[in-house]
Design goal:
ATP binding; about 325 residues; ABC_transporter_ATP-binding; Rossmann fold; 14 strands; 2 domains; single chain; 4-stranded antiparallel β-sheet; Alpha-Beta Plaits; alpha/beta; ATP-binding
Length: about 325
């Protein structure tokens, strides 16, 4: 397993008035991974990022980044962390190239025009380098935020809703950029309300609710463990009752006997295997079928079921 790059231990944040935004959070992030933090609005995602980036002072708990305690050795650790915030708060009157170069200087790094050009080209911003930020589209402005965050060559990058408000094509472009970051060894933590984004990009997923981390797991393991399989089998001839060979399977007769519906695999990851066993049992029982439609749970299905009636955000 890769070494930990960020360790949160008992992290809590209580705001004046009693709002508990973070509640005893323990979390370890590994070097080189893409970690997606999912949760409804108000769950504590942005507060957690703010605490690590020095924008929010925790009430209790510890944060260690790159082996440094963020409370006592904040400056050394913060210089290796990049943040792409949710809100566009950059200087709208600055040209793109100057704004990105300025961000590099904020961290005490020497000017490096070649590196700034490389970053702008990778984000398709080089042609806009002399354009004022205010004149850019929403998607381009968000790319400028990413460029500013990359300017000081961070080892750990936070992306807080990086594709909010951009269209599908730009989102896919962002995914490609995040992939390139991982290839360069950057560790990426992203929050998103596009759960397909986490499903596409993340190595591990954490789910936060009411300031508490309720689950952290490898994405594929989470989907295998908590997912379910649904299969609709179209029958060649209507069926009045299930044959004995299917008695042990989670199957129901539907659509007036013309279809069988299997819903199973919960917590086992064996749904597809059981569907294959069902089809063999049908054939052995002399029952013909004309088609099978199989659907696996998405990460969104799992997320919604874990949070009950709360909506993904």
């Amino acid at each position: 397993m890769n070494e930990p790059i960020l360790e949160l231990d008992g992290l809590s944040k209580v705001y004046p008035g009693g709002l508990k935004a973070l509640d005893n959070v323990d979390l370890t992030i590994r070097k080189g991974e893409i970690f997606a933090l999912l949760g409804p609005n108000g769950a504590g995602k942005t507060t957690l990022i703010g605490a690590v980036c020095g924008l929010v002072r925790p009430t209790s708990g510890t944060i260690r980044a790159f082996g440094h305690d963020m409370a006592s050795d904040w400056r050394k650790a913060r210089a290796r962390i990049g943040l792409v915030p949710q809100e566009l708060s950059t200087d709208m009157f600055e040209p793109v190239q100057r704004a990105v170069a300025y961000s590099r200087g904020l961290f005490g790094l020497a000017p490096d025009p070649a590196r700034i050009e490389e970053i702008l080209r990778s984000l398709s911003l080089w042609d806009k380098r002399d354009t004022r930020i205010m004149a850019l589209s929403g998607g381009m402005k968000r790319r400028v935020l990413i460029a500013k965050a990359l300017a000081h060559e961070p080892d750990l990058l936070f992306l807080d809703e990086p594709t909010a408000g951009v269209d599908v094509e730009l989102r896919k472009g962002m995914w490609a950029i995040i992939d390139q970051m991982r290839d360069r060894g950057v560790t990426v933590i992203l929050t998103t309300h596009y759960i397909e984004e986490a499903e596409e990009m993340a190595d591990r997923v954490g789910i936060i609710r009411k300031g508490q981390i309720i689950m952290v797991d490898e994405k594929d393991a989470m989907m295998a463990r908590l997912g379910r399989t649904e299969a609709h089998i179209a029958l060649a001839q209507p069926m009045a009752e299930l044959p004995p060979a299917l008695a042990g399977y989670p199957i129901e007769i539907e659509e007036g006997g013309t279809s069988l519906c299997y819903r199973g695999g919960d917590g086992t990851g064996r749904g597809k295997e059981e569907v294959a066993d069902v089809t063999k049992a049908l054939i052995a029982s002399g029952i013909d079928y004309t088609g099978i439609d199989i659907r696996e749970s998405s990460l969104e299905d799992i997320f919604v079921s874990l949070l009950g009636e709360e909506q993904a955000a």
